[in-house]
Specification:
about 550 residues, alpha/beta, Rossmann fold, GMP Synthetase, Chain A, domain 3, nine-stranded mixed β-sheet, five-stranded parallel β-sheet, 28 strands, globular
Length: about 550
């Protein structure tokens, strides 16, 4: 067991935690009994109590079972921005003993189709602005039932907060046999059957991509989810009085765990923004008395750049943190000077249901992933020899802990390749290169896997390339990362056109075509036409050479 960091362990905290032997839904049941009148959510000033939340969750779970035929273990897609629909849908799927498949709402129709087909899903919960992406799918794949909501249904109180257009848009009717309006599904009053899911049953299956192109489902049990939910509560000393700003997307494990599941577990209140808005965030921190704000670097930079920031009372904040990309020293110092708080960085992956490492609150380090949290054994191994590395020796970070996933859905080979046996334990190979210092703090330096980090979103070049090859004018493509002052990295495609297409197709046309087929963070922002791509003797494209040339610019 790696223990170098124990000398700097947070005072008063145990080094391991017992993971609750319950389902994730049980946390909502307990909080609704303990705090029925307490508010679970503030949605642009409209508030929902725990009792009302549980009522709607149970009603939707009954609808899923009785009208959509959702059975235990079935996968149900959840495709929406942060909203009451996401929260209610998430817990309703779990209440129905099914598995939540969270989908990034930026994904386009063809990307969505992959999730439906790969997960063998027949039911999808979504919001109305995404209907154009959903509409082509019923009848083409396994999808049969769509429960479609309007964000404005949960705007029950007048507000002067700046609302995104899609949030205050009135409810629309969709005359499609697959569609049931969200409010009708709740109003149906279906009573769910006995809740039987237990700690070893699958609960959540977020998708992640990799070197092979198509996204893969990460199988997480209720125990995996509860391992990091419980850890967050103890590490951050979160109580039922906490007020959490939910601005990180809930379809991503960091936001899901820190601002949805942990908040419900504690009986705390989450203040939801469906889209990042620095003014709205500051207004809600002041009005709702937000105590915890977790965001990515680009959010924090934008927040600090607000010329009106000094107008707001932000004194309720006591926790400030994030991950996804290292926080620049200058930004961290400005946050500390402006808010009087240290930015606490962490490290985790979709395969670990969020954090495996967090900086101790009393002794954080900058540009640092932190120390292994409760029950996590993290090592650094030489990627070639698999020998253990010492302090400051860069190698692959491997992880063993209660939050590590069960494997990739229907991908036994990929699962086998993702794990190794070391020191008598089964470790997950993170694909991230890094090192630990003399005090046991971990630093991420590079990626072993081929990946682009665009404003905290992971982009896997092979997946983008696979889409580009469907373009009728493209002969070959190689996707690399290019430096971006705002997003950190952006996607660039080096493209060889078919001979007949040269001179009549522009880079802008390829970008526009890509934008229609890929999520906003994923499509190439820059396309460069080249005569040929460098290759190995066996014909493999030398992407690393192209990446190094780009980096040298």
């Amino acid at each position: 067991m790696f223990s170098r960091h124990f000398a700097h362990w947070p005072p008063g905290l145990p080094r391991t935690l017992s993971v609750p032997r319950t389902s994730v839904y049980y946390n909502l049941e307990v909080s609704a009994k303990r705090y029925p009148e307490r508010f679970a959510f503030d949605y642009y000033g409209s508030r929902t109590s725990y009792a009302e939340l549980k009522r709607q969750v149970d009603a939707l779970a009954g609808f899923l079972q009785q009208r959509c035929g959702v059975a235990p273990g079935d996968r149900v897609l959840l495709y929406t921005q942060n909203s009451l629909q996401f929260a209610i849908g998430f817990y309703a799927i779990l209440r129905a003993d099914a598995v939540v498949v969270p989908v990034n709402p930026m994904n386009r129709s063809e990307e969505l189709r992959h999730f439906v087909e790969d997960a063998d899903a027949t039911t999808l919960l979504a919001t109305q602005e995404l209907w154009p992406q959903i509409a082509p799918l019923p009848g083409l794949c396994s999808l049969k039932h769509v429960v479609l909501g309007a964000y404005s249904d949960y705007l029950t109180a007048p507000t002067d907060l700046p609302l995104p257009d899609f949030v205050h848009a009135p409810r629309q009717r969709h005359e499609h046999p697959a569609v049931t309006p969200w409010i009708d599904a709740i109003a149906a009053g279906c009573v769910p059957g006995e809740h039987r899911a237990g700690p070893a049953d699958l609960a959540v299956m977020p998708y992640t991509s990799g070197t092979t192109g198509k996204p893969k489902g990460c199988m997480h049990t209720h125990s995996n989810v509860l391992a990091t939910t419980t850890a967050y509560l103890h590490w951050r000393d979160t109580t039922s009085e906490a007020v959490v700003l939910a601005v990180l997307p809930w379809f991503h494990v960091t936001g899901m765990q820190g601002a949805l599941n942990a908040a419900i577990h504690a009986g705390a209140m989450a203040v939801i923004l469906s889209r990042w808005d620095r003014d709205c965030a500051a207004m809600q921190i002041e009005r709702a008395g937000v105590t915890a704000f977790t965001g990515i670097t680009t959010m924090m930079i934008d927040f600090l750049a607000n010329p009106d920031l000094g107008r707001y009372d932000l004194s309720s904040l006591s926790v400030l943190g994030g991950g996804g990309a290292a926080m620049p020293e200058a930004v961290a110092q400005k946050l500390s000077a402006t808010l009087g708080l240290e930015f606490i960085e962490g490290y985790g992956l979709s395969e670990t249901m969020a954090a495996t490492h967090i900086n101790p609150n009393h002794r954080p380090k900058k540009q640092c992933g932190g120390i292994p949290i409760f029950g996590v054994d993290a090592r650094v191994l030489d990627p070639e020899t698999l020998a253990e590395c010492g302090p400051h020796q860069v190698g692959e970070i491997v992880l063993h802990g209660p939050q590590v996933f069960q494997g990739y859905w229907k991908q036994p080979q990929a699962t086998a390749e993702a794990f190794l046996e070391h020191d008598g334990k089964r470790f997950f190979r993170s694909g991230d290169l890094g090192y630990y210092d003399e005090e046991g703090y971990f630093f991420i330096t590079d990626r072993l896997k081929r990946m682009i980090n665009a404003a905290g979103f992971k982009v896997w070049p092979a997946e983008v390339e696979a889409t580009l090859y469907a373009h009728p004018d493209i002969q070959e493509a190689c996707v690399i990362g290019t430096r971006d002052a705002h997003r950190g990295e952006s996607v660039k495609a080096l493209v060889v056109l078919k001979p007949a297409s040269r001179g009549r197709v522009s880079p802008a046309e390829v970008i526009a075509w890509s934008k229609e087929r890929m999520a906003a963070y994923k499509y190439p922002r820059e396309v460069e036409f080249v005569e040929a791509l460098p290759k190995t003797a066996t014909g493999k494209i030398l992407w690393k050479t192209l990446q190094e040339l780009e980096d040298a610019k």
